[in-house]
Amino acid sequence: MAAVYKSLSKSSKKDTTTNGTTNGTTPKKNKQRVLILSSRGITYRHRHLLNDLYALLPHSRKDAKLDTKTKLYQLNELADLYNCNNVLFFEARKGKDLYIWMSKAPNGPTVKCHLQNLHTTSELHFPGNCLKGSRPILSFDSTFTTTPHLLLIKELLTHIFGVPKGARKTKPFVDHVMGFTIADGKIWIRCFEIREASVSKSELRAQPTDESSNEKELTVQSGGKGDTKLSLIEIGPRFILTPIVILESSFGGPVIYENKEFVSPNQIRSELRLGKAGRYNQRSEQRIEREAKKGDLGLRTGKERPVGELEDKVLFA
Fold first, then answer.
1. Disulfide check for 108: which of 173, 227, 249, 272 has CB 3.0–4.6 Å away?
2. DSSP helix/strand/coil, 67
């Protein structure tokens, strides 16, 4: 981690010297604090995700559950009370669905997303690990620069997940990467550890690892100290966010973007129930028709067949 930290610290020093000496002003300090809390009704997996994000973000503060789901403007007062300018709110519905509100308090904007395919750190038993309190490297897909709403989401994710230098409980190390990728209109979020190890000449001739594994290796050269192998090992959590709406202010205001392709999970479950009900109605109609046909033929049990004129009982009575 020393090589990564040194390279980032050198670049930051060059920027501060160029900006500070030429303009004669001190560089502006990045002050970001995140308030993390949830609503009533979250499951244990949602709670584990909240704890994982709280451990990855040393500049965050965790608060108790919010009792209401309608008066979300109260979160602005809580953020002002705890001196936070970012809010990450987990809203659970029906004990199944999880929605994440990301807001820039107190003026906005606010992004509402639907969370899917959740895998916490303790679920998959990832082999990687990072130092608690270290700062991450944020890696964004190039698709984020194509549309205005993705640019806004990228800026909001940078403010929330980007740990500022010198924040509370931070350590001067950069040892993990958070990747944000756009695929199928969804944001795929994964977290990797940067593992650094010295490599010998025999290992350089070895074949590269499989691309489908959770570990990706890169061999770099450090000045005069031999080759160094940098590998990315996933540490979790991993989840997918589907943007729904973007509000102009914090937890309110006019809608400036709406995802027309989003289908709520309630609608999906309703269509599944209607499909099952349609199959049941079809089977019941077939059963009624079958019973009616048997009744016409006199094959139904418990029902006497009408006596015809050509029956033996009538002819030889």
1. 249
2. coil
pLDDT tens-digit series, residues 23-59: 555 566 778 889 999 988 888 999 999 999 998 888 8
C-alpha pair distances (Å), 86 with each of 46, 75, 82, 99, 107: 20, 10, 11, 17, 10
Mean pLDDT of 302-313: 72
Q: 293 by DSSP, 3-state: which?
A: helix
Q: What's at 302, amino acid-wise?
A: G
- Kindly indicate the confidence band of residue 186, based on its pLDDT and cuts at 50, 70 and 90: very high
Residue type, 303: K
* Distance between start and end Cα atoms, the chain: 109
Q: How confident is the model at residue 180 (pLDDT cuts 50, 70, 90)?
A: very high
Q: What six digits make up the tokens of 29?
A: 């300090």
C-beta neighbour count of 191 within 10 angstroms: 23
**Torsion on CA atoms 52, 55, 60, 63, rounded to nearest 10:** 60
Can you tell me the distance from the alpha carbon of 284 to that of 275, in angstroms, rounded to the nearest whole number? 14
**Global pTM value:** 0.71
CB 3 within 8 A of CB 222: yes
Please choose, from the candidates 230, 208, 178, the residue with its C-alpha nearest in 3D space to the C-alpha of residue 3. 230
